């Protein structure tokens, strides 16, 4: 008998077909939003779940789903998983690292460029029919080339952004991370390790790429924003909750910061209403990894994890040991 697998969100039909060869599927191709209670109900008797970073897997859910053996996230971030509770319950957690690194780094750079060079602001002005003549200071933003790029969180994606900045745009790259990179990796990224205070003080553009956890909650709040240059750009492609969005909106309104590019939000898909009213913010709906090939690779890696665990007893990219 095939084990039962709950695929909690809509995914590529070809990936569903692969999964259907190994599992009895419960799917959600209409992509309905399930409450926690509905998720729990559908998980009854399931061996595994295919998640998309929005489904919370915690001790209460695990206690109510004793048959569950694996949760495969189609995301590199896994702050929806309580890993300790999963390990204690003997449930394997997997994510999808590496396959999205370059695509996400591309997007981080695109968001940085759009914000610093005021691209979406310009497009809105043009579409409103307000472009009547060239003017010396119209939408004059900040330079990217030869500026100082700050990166908070120097994992694989942070390193990809550093390489783009240093090698492609001649930027001085500084970073802060929980642990310093080895000298060889620092050399490849042409990045210099600094304290968080130096990072905030010296960056012309600050990109956030750190994982979300209780310790990174509001890592950028009013006090940190006050340390940044008034001409600086802030880009968040990490997770909502790392930035205090209300404090960011206040800082932007007060001119403490030149602009922000945000792909993730506290409480998304809701966006803080103050951010929506500000012209100097570029807002995108959590799409940093959203190229078609990358999203397909993420879905296939999550499926590979489930299939390998079922057929060989081990996953390709596990997050815990059970
Ligand atoms: C990730 O992979 O973590 C992306 O943010 C999608 O959730």
Q: What does this 3D model show about the protein?
A:
- The chain is α/β, with parallel strands linked by helices and 322 residues long.
- Helices cover 38% and strands 14% of the residues.
- The chain has 13 helices and 12 strands.
- It has helices at residues 13-20, 36-43, 59-64, 83-88, 101-116, 119-127, 156-169, 183-189, 196-202, 222-226, 245-253, 273-277, 292-312; strands at residues 4-7, 24-26, 48-51, 70-73, 92-94, 148-152, 172-176, 191-193, 205-208, 233-236, 259-262, 281-283.
- The strands form 2 sheets. It has a 7-stranded parallel β-sheet with strand order 8-7-6-9-10-11-12, with helices on both faces. It has a 5-stranded parallel β-sheet with strand order 2-1-3-4-5.
- Helix 5 crosses helix 7.
- The model has no long low-confidence stretch (mean pLDDT 98).
- The site of (2R)-2,3-dihydroxypropanoic acid (DGY) has 6 residues, from loops.
What keyword list fits this structure?
322 residues, Rossmann fold, 2 domains, seven-stranded parallel beta sheet, five-stranded parallel beta sheet, 13 helices, 12 strands, globular, binds (2R)-2,3-dihydroxypropanoic acid
Identify the bound ligands. (2R)-2,3-dihydroxypropanoic acid
At the first level of CATH, the class of the largest domain is Alpha Beta
How would you characterize the largest beta sheet? 7 strands, parallel
What's the mean pLDDT score? 98
Structural domains: how many: 2
Short description:
38% of the residues lie in helices and 14% in strands.
What order do the helices and strands come in, and which of them pair?
Elements: E1 4-7, H1 13-20, E2 24-26, H2 36-43, E3 48-51, H3 59-64, E4 70-73, H4 83-88, E5 92-94, H5 101-116, H6 119-127, E6 148-152, H7 156-169, E7 172-176, H8 183-189, E8 191-193, H9 196-202, E9 205-208, H10 222-226, E10 233-236, H11 245-253, E11 259-262, H12 273-277, E12 281-283, H13 292-312
Parallel strand pairs: 1-2, 1-3, 3-4, 4-5, 6-7, 6-9, 7-8, 9-10, 10-11, 11-12
The structure holds (2R)-2,3-dihydroxypropanoic acid (DGY).
């Amino acid at each position: 008998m095939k084990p039962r697998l709950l695929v909690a969100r809509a995914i590529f039909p070809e990936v569903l077909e692969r999964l259907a060869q190994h599992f009895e599927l419960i799917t959600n191709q209409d992509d309905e939003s399930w409450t926690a209670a509905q998720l729990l109900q559908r998980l009854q008797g399931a061996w595994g779940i295919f998640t998309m970073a929005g489904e919370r897997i915690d001790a209460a859910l695990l206690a109510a789903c004793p048959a569950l053996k694996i949760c495969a996230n189609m995301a590199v971030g896994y702050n929806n998983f309580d890993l300790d509770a999963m390990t204690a319950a003997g449930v394997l957690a997997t994510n999808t690292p590496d396959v999205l690194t370059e695509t996400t780094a591309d997007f981080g750079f695109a968001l940085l460029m759009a914000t610093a060079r005021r691209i979406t602001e310009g497009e809105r002005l043009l579409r409103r029919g307000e472009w009547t003549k060239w003017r010396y200071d119209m939408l004059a933003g900040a330079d990217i080339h030869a500026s100082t790029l700050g990166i908070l969180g120097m994992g694989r994606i942070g390193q990809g952004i550093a390489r783009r900045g240093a090698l492609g745009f001649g930027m001085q790259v500084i970073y802060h991370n929980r642990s310093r990179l080895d000298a060889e990796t620092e050399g490849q990224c042409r990045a210099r390790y600094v304290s968080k205070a130096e990072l905030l003080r010296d960056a012309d553009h600050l990109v956030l790429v750190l994982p979300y956890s209780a310790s990174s909650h509001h890592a950028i709040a009013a006090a940190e924003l006050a340390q940044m240059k008034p001409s600086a750009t802030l880009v968040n492609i990490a997770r909502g909750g790392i930035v205090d969005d209300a404090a960011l909106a206040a800082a932007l309104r007060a001119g403490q910061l030149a602009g922000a590019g945000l792909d993730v939000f506290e409480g998304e898909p809701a966006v803080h209403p103050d951010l929506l009213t500000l012209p100097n913010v570029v807002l995108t709906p959590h799409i940093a990894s959203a190229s078609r090939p990358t999203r397909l690779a993420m879905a296939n890696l999550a499926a590979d994890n489930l299939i390998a665990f079922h057929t060989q007893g081990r996953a390709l990219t596990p997050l815990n040991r059970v």
